[in-house]
Amino acid sequence: MKSMNYINKLLPQLGAAFKSQDHELFDIVFDIEGKKLYADKLILSISSPTFKSMLSDRWISKNDAIKIETYKYDDFKELLTFIYSGECNLSNENIFTMLDVAEFYQTEDLKKLCDEYLSKLELKLTNIFQLLETSNKYSLIQMKEKIQTFVFQKFANFTKFDGFLNADKSIVKEIVAMESNLSKHHEKMFQYVSLYFVYFLTREVREVFLEFLLENGLKLKI
């Protein structure tokens, strides 16, 4: 048997303990930008393979302050707050940094939270390329699904946008693939999009599209 009452009380208590930063409760201290954060080896090690390796006796002495130079104090504190409480203050200003933090420290639940946050952002032609690159870099499932829907719904606008016509070839190819994979189930739309690529777009983008058709065994009716 197990006590759900005890289990449900434990996480808030851990969060409160971390928030208190009572150094007598912890056995690890981090030094970030000259500021200290206290934590304990057990919680960090079971929450993050990166921390487990970092905190092993092979790398540090028990009494050493661990200097963090890769991330800022506020961002690292958000990571530890999430580990101890399951909560993280995500914003448009810190979301990309927190996603990178989650990836580096292999905290999958925080990464999923970042993916959920990004998937709720309003997609625009001006941010779609950055978000597509981000979703690829960090393998974000929810974000990628939303991008695919946006591409299908707004593809005509893409073809008139300078950012698309001048984008990296790999990004153009991926967007073309998204559109074609969806629209090929709607033959008339696929043919319309194909003809637009052939007759109206720049030579570089047209070549990417024709290369995609060839690789996927698709035919264009002219």
From TrEMBL:
Question: Which intervals hold domain BTB?
Answer: 26-92
What SUPFAM superfamilies would the database entry show?
Answer: POZ domain (SSF54695)
- Which Gene3D superfamilies does this chain map to? Potassium Channel Kv1.1, Chain A (3.30.710.10)
Enumerate the PROSITE patterns for this protein.
BTB
What Pfam families does its record include? Answer: BTB
Specify the superkingdom: Eukaryota
This chain belongs to the protein called: BTB domain-containing protein
From what organism does this protein derive? Panagrolaimus davidi
- Kindly list the organism's lineage: Eukaryota, Metazoa, Ecdysozoa, Nematoda, Chromadorea
